[in-house]
Amino acid sequence: MNKRVFLIHGWDGRSNNHWFPWLIAELKARYFAVDAISMPTPATPHLKDWLGAIKEAVGTPDEHTYFVGHSLGCVTIVRYLESLPKKAKVGGAVLVAGFSGNISSPELAEFYATPERPIDFARVKSICPKIMTIFSDDDPVVPLVKGISFAKSIGAKVIIEKGKGHFCKDDGVTALPVVLETLTNFTHER
Questions:
Q1: Three-class DSSP category at 70
Q2: What is the rounded distance in angstroms from the CA atom of residue 18 to the CA atom of residue 141?
Q3: pLDDT tens digits for range 134-188
Q4: What's the Cα-to-Cα distance from 4 to each of 57, 58, 64, 99, rounded to whole Å?
């Protein structure tokens, strides 16, 4: 069975920026089918549209389906997983600079977990039991405390990188070996 990986960029991002091109090349060299989804209206994201883009690209997910997200892409992946049928299963998710609460960006409010729009974290964990979160100790966008809270909510393992900022090209991050290593480990675990 072919392993499929779907990459979801963040707010105002693109499917070919930061470390995504490097990861795509590395995964393809290892015979993964890779789709870096160009999310609609990335500068003014809407949850419904972003979920629709993932659903259209993925089709029917299975235990050979993996996700990699950056920033708002992580939140979107969690919301997508939550929307799947209870019996659905995916192989795993690697979430880089993800968060679940408000990070002082009111224009993203519909993505946030709030009392009015909670995230069913138990459901997410049952659909996707392998989740790794990756944070930087100096991220100016996602405070480490918000990231750790997010990881605990979904029962994810945590890796903290040193000096990677928000994992953007402007931070000098054009390759992220820890993501490749994590995905490779996920696909060999059973």
A1: strand
A2: 15
A3: 999 999 999 999 899 999 999 999 999 999 999 999 999 999 999 999 999 999 8
A4: 11, 9, 6, 24
CA pseudo-torsion sign 114, 123, 185, 159: positive
CA 37 – CA 29 distance, rounded (Å):
19
The rounded mean pLDDT for the chain is 93
88 CB contacts (<8 Å, ≥6 apart)?
61, 127
Which positions ≥6 away from 141 have C-beta within 8 Å?
Answer: 71, 97, 103, 166
Give CA–CA dist 65/92, Å, rounded: 7
The model's pTM is 0.95
* Closest C-alpha among 13, 59, 67, 6 to residue 40: 13
Structure tokens at 141: 């966008």
Residue at 52: amino acid letter: G
Provide the phi-psi class of 162: left if phi over 0, else alpha when psi is between -120 and 50, else beta.
Answer: beta
Q: Residue 30 contacts by C-beta under 8 Å, 6 or more apart in sequence?
A: 184
Token reading at 65: 């389906």
- Residues annotated as catalytic (active site), given as ranges: 71, 139, 166
Q: Which helix (H) or strand (E) holds 80?
A: helix 72-83
